[in-house]
């Protein structure tokens, strides 16, 4: 899908499978570009460029799959009716969580949460069928959930209920 629908292409003797493998290996092992270059016997410029290209394709793929089925939200799901009147007009559920991360020593203190370990606060929205419709990432460390939500709902892709 990344190749056929999202623009991932071969680049000289660096084919898409190797680029995707390098990308996944780097994420799984939490390694930097120098380690990727040594592992895949490539120059730092090539590694950086290919990693960026794969990342862009993966982000395009995420935009495609993390979207409401009814973008205009014109229909409210009938599932929460048993909880009337508490969830009347609701279009889904929202929650935030802290994801443990590895971060450079220079920025380490910015990402320490209230439990004492580095994290990034992530917000997810899903519809009543369990499909993820929005992911918001980017708040460092000890950030209140309401601040994360306020930041998320300013994004153009954040799902809002229909008027009324």
Short summary:
The protein has 164 residues and is α+β, with helices and mostly antiparallel strands. It has helices at residues 2-5, 16-29, 33-40, 44-65, 145-152, and strands spanning 93-100, 119-126, 132-140.
**Count of individual beta strands:** 3
Task: Name the average pLDDT.
Answer: 79
Order of helices and strands: HHHHEEEH
Total count of helical runs of at least 4 residues: 5
Report, as a whole number of angstroms, the end-to-end distance.
Answer: 39 Å
Shape: flat
Q: What kind of sheet is the major sheet?
A: 3 strands, antiparallel
Rg, nearest Å: 20 Å
- How are the strands of the largest sheet arranged? 1-2-3
> Portion of residues in helices?
25-40%
Structural class estimated from helices and strands: alpha+beta
Query: How many discrete structural domains?
Result: 2
Amount of beta strand: 15-25%
Contiguous low-pLDDT stretches (5 residues minimum) are none
Key attributes of the depicted protein:
alpha+beta, 3 strands, 5 helices, 34% helix, 164 residues, three-stranded antiparallel β-sheet
Structure notes:
- It is a single chain.
- The chain is of the alpha+beta class and 164 residues long.
- The chain folds into 2 domains: 2-65; 79-152, no CATH class.
- Helix content is 34%, strand content 15%.
- A hairpin with a 5-residue loop joins strand 2 (119-126) and strand 3.
- The two termini are 39 Å apart.
- The model has no long low-confidence stretch (mean pLDDT 79).
